[in-house]
Model the fold of this input.
Amino acid sequence: MAFSFGGSNNGLRGRRRFGASNGALSEINVVPLVDVVLVLLIIFMLTAQAMEFGLEIKVPEVIQVKDTSEDLPVINITRDGKIMLGDKPVGIHAMADEIARRHKGAKAVYVRADRETVYDPIAQVVSTLSAAKYDVKLVTKPLESKR
Done:
């Protein structure tokens, strides 16, 4: 730390001009820090909109829904009929083997299909999983009452 007690400033009080003293500058310059933080904030705000988590699947709404929270493999069927195991595409013929490989010991499977999906891919998936001795559980959403 450096202290100044009068002396060599020719009677001038207050701050000295830049370069007029050999003392150390003890103030932190926060302007570059604020600039970097603002640039990072803008970058994160722009990239957060581009990130998508999961698949956009709107499941059908039904009156009665059984509330379960088991940790089971999930087969997703998109609106255009693509079949996914989790978030990775899987073929209909390799689906049972892929479930057995990724989820050892699974006895049941959730099937989550978009409500706009035609029935044929759903029926094919349910048939294939039933033939492979998996218990098929369809994912639905509770119907909201109009009251």
Summary: The mean pLDDT is 80. The radius of gyration is 32 Å.
